[in-house]
Amino acid sequence: MTDRTCSRCRTQLAPGALACPVCGTLVHADQLKRLASDAELLTRDGSLLAARVEWTKALELLPPHSQQYAMIQNRIAELTRTIEAGPAGAGSSGAAGSGDKPWWLQGLAGVGTLVLLIATKLKFLLLGLTKLSTFVSMFAFFGVYWSIYGWPLALGLVLSIYIHEMGHVAMLRRLGIAAGAPLFIPGMGAVVMLKQHVTDPLTDARIGLAGPVWGLGAGLAALAVYLVTGGMIWLAIAQLTGFINLFNLIPVWQLDGSRGMHALARSERWMLVAAIAAALLLTEQRMLFIIGGVAIWRATQKDAGPGNARVLATYVTLVIALSLLARGIGAE
User: Fold this and answer.
1) More confident residue, 30 or 101
2) By the 8 A CB rule, do 46 and 32 touch?
3) Helix%, strand%, coil% for the chain, nearest 5
4) Does 281 score more than 90 pLDDT?
5) What is the rounded CA–CA span in Å between residue 197 and residue 178?
6) Which residues in the chain belong to E strands, given as ranges?
C-alpha cells in the first residue's frame, strides 16, 4: 500500500485519514469540489434526488466534526424538506410544505399509493431472491418456523417479512442510498444493512416507515385472498402480518417506529400519542399499550425532531390500519 502525504505540508497520513492532523487540509479536497459542483448543477436543473446523492457522497469524505460536514448536513436537510414538500411547496421548509389536504388524508393517500406500488412491483420483489444470502437465510428461516407452525403459516410469515424488508430497500434505492439485500435471522426477523450512514432524520424516517407501509400492503393482500376464498389460513397470515408490522412501530431502539419518531417535533409526538390512544379504544389491541407507553416517554425527551406532517400522517395511519388488521391477535 502506497504511503500518503498531505499535499500542503507533506505530513504522512494514516490509512483512512480524511484530513491532515497538522494543517487540517482535507485529503479529498479535489473530489469534494467536483461533488459540490455536480450537486449545485443538479439542484439548478431540478434533479433534487440526484443532488442529494452527490452531497451524501461528499459527506462520507469529510471528518464528522468539521465545519464542512455540518454545512453539507444542512444542505441535505434542506433538499429533503424541498423534496418532501413537492412541487407546490418548493420554497417551503419543515412541515409547511404539506399542502391544503387534512394531515390524516395525506398519510392515507401515501399508504394507498405505496400499497398499489407493491401490487405492481412484483419484478422488484423477485429481485431480492436473486441474492444468495437472502435466499439461503430465508430458506433457513422458513425451515425453523415450518417445524413450529406448519408450512402454510411459515410461508406466509416469511413472505410478509420479506415484503416488509423490500419496502426499506425500495425507499433506499429511491433516495440513492446504498444498502445490502435482506438477511433473515430466525427469532428476530430480517435486516437490511446500510452501506452508508444516514444522518438526516426525515430521510431516516422515510426509510424506516417504508417497511411497515409495504408490510401493510402484504397484510391487506392476504386479507383480500381470505375474503375471496374464505380460507382461514389467509386470515391468520393477514393478522400475523399486521401484528408483526405493528410491533415494528414501537418507537425504541432500531425499530422502524423509532426512526419515524426521530423526525417528529414535540407537539407532533403528543399528537401521535393521542392517535395511539384512539386506536386502542377502537381496536382494543394490547400492543398499543407498549407503543403508546414508549411514545409518551419519547414525547417527554428533549431530542425532538424538526417536525414533518407527512411523517406524522403516515405513522398515525399505519398505527390505526395495522391495529385493525391485527385485531385477532393481542386484542382484549
Assistant:
1) 30
2) no
3) 70, 5, 25
4) yes
5) 10
6) 4-5, 12-13, 183-185, 189-191
